[in-house]
Amino acid sequence: MEKTLTQKPSDCLKFVLFGPESTGKTTLAKQLAAHYNTRWVPEYMREYLQKKWDVSKKKCEREDLLPIAYGQMHWENELSEKTSDLLFCDTNLLELKVYSEYYYNGFCPSEIEEFALKNEYTHYFLTYIDTKWVFDDLRDRPDDREKMFCIFENELTNQKLPFSILKGTQEERFTNAVRLIDEKTRKRNNVI
Q1: Which residues form the NadR/Ttd14 AAA domain (predicted)?
Q2: Total count of domains within the chain
Q3: Does some domain include residue 6?
């Protein structure tokens, strides 16, 4: 497991799926990775918290935040070493920062905040709330999605990070994401 939240150097273009719960991030990350025959980084928080729920029926607590962050960076760093082209991240530390501040009245461990703002990504895909909210053991705020979307959008805007909002059907989101990824790939390869 990682002992730091630092990104390891990588030549791959990293795209982050970013946004409120149940907005299609995982589905799109898997689709894009399959389309480009590359890897995607799952959401470590989901695995970590599902195990916690299964064992104790407890949700996320403050003391879970740093282990989740270390696990997420471990997965991202491990998978970025296995690709030199594209990597799709189902989430990242910035998303953990946003959720931490929302759930814990502005609290976020300083290490997470530091590296959430320091680690670099090629582009963020902010997923809109026009998807059906689907219940599971970990999702708990179906009525907060609009508010959360605004918080996520404000975070990207305030940090001056490159992002696009993905709306519409699964197919429309996929098509729009592919168009932007292809454009970024052409620019990287100096092909116009």
Answers
A1: 14-173
A2: 1
A3: no
122 vs 14: CA distance, rounded Å: 5
Q: Which long-range contacts (CB under 8 A, 24 or more apart) does 31-34 make?
A: 31/170, 31/174, 32/86, 32/88, 32/174, 32/177, 32/178, 32/181, 33/88
CATH, residue 170: 3.40.50.300
Residue type, 166: L
Cβ neighbours for 28, distance < 8 A, ≥ 6 positions apart: 17, 125, 127, 166, 170, 173, 174, 177
Nearest one of 57, 59, 55, 150 to 104, comparing CA atoms: 59
Residue in 16, 27, 46 with CA at minimum distance from that of residue 156: 16
Is the distance from CB of 21 to CB of 130 less than 8 angstroms?
A: no
pLDDT digits (tens, 9 = 90+) for 47-82: 999 999 999 999 999 999 999 999 999 999 999 999
Residue 90 lies in a domain: yes
Distance set, CA 185 to CA 155, 172, 178 (Å): 25, 20, 10
| Strand, coil or helix: 119 | coil
